[in-house]
Amino acid sequence: MACEKNNENEAANNDLLIGSWVNPKQNDSIVTYERSEGLVDNEYGLSFNEDNIFIERKNAGWCGTPPISYADYDGTWTRNDSVIEITVGYWGGTADYTWKILSIDEAILKIIVLEQNYQLEDQQK
């Protein structure tokens, strides 16, 4: 019985994760996102979609000086308890993120970044 209840809670928490998250605020190592109806034009945001599809809207190039151009990068995500593994493209190649969910509800997602790795594509192909 207890295992069934835990599975139901995990499924409910996965359902809470599905959707768009914007307006990241960083406080030390904790990042807080707000739920949104969708990604906002010309602003950073991310979406966890069903079937483990991930979309990250972020800088389209290496330069972070305004005006910044944004693009949507497709990726995938998996979740094991409170740990989320994400693989997503970026302007220079592929990024791998490992995040731990500290809390999640209908309005707020709080995470701590455990790991971020960026692989550059071979530019001389």
Biggest sheet strand order reads: 1-2-8-7-6-5-4-3
CATH structural architecture: Beta Barrel
Helicity range: 10-25%
Which class best fits the helix and strand makeup? mainly beta
Largest sheet: 8 strands, antiparallel, barrel
Q: How many beta-strand runs?
A: 8
Number of DSSP helices? 1
Rg, Å, rounded: 15 Å
Give the H and E element order: HEEEEEEEE
Uncertain stretches of 5 or more adjacent residues? 4-8
Apparent shape: globular
Strand content: over 45%
Q: Can you tell me the CATH topology?
A: Lipocalin
**Distance from first to last alpha carbon:** 55 Å
Number of domains: 1
Averaging pLDDT over every residue, what do you get? 89
Instruction: Give the C-level CATH assignment.
Output: Mainly Beta
Supply the key terms.
125 residues, mainly beta, Lipocalin, 8-stranded antiparallel barrel, 1 helix, 13% helix, 58% strand
Notes on the structure:
This protein is mostly beta strands and 125 residues long. It has one domain: Beta Barrel (Lipocalin), CATH 2.40.128. Helix content is 13%, strand content 58%. The chain has one helix and eight strands. The protein has an eight-stranded antiparallel beta barrel. A hairpin with a 3-residue loop joins β3 and β4. The longest helix is centred in the first third of the chain and has 16 residues.
How would you concisely characterize the structure shown here?
By secondary structure, this protein is mostly beta strands.
Secondary structure topology:
Blueprint: H1 2-17, E1 19-27, E2 30-36, E3 45-49, E4 53-59, E5 70-80, E6 83-90, E7 93-104, E8 108-120
Antiparallel strand pairs: 1-2, 1-3, 2-8, 3-4, 4-5, 5-6, 6-7, 7-8
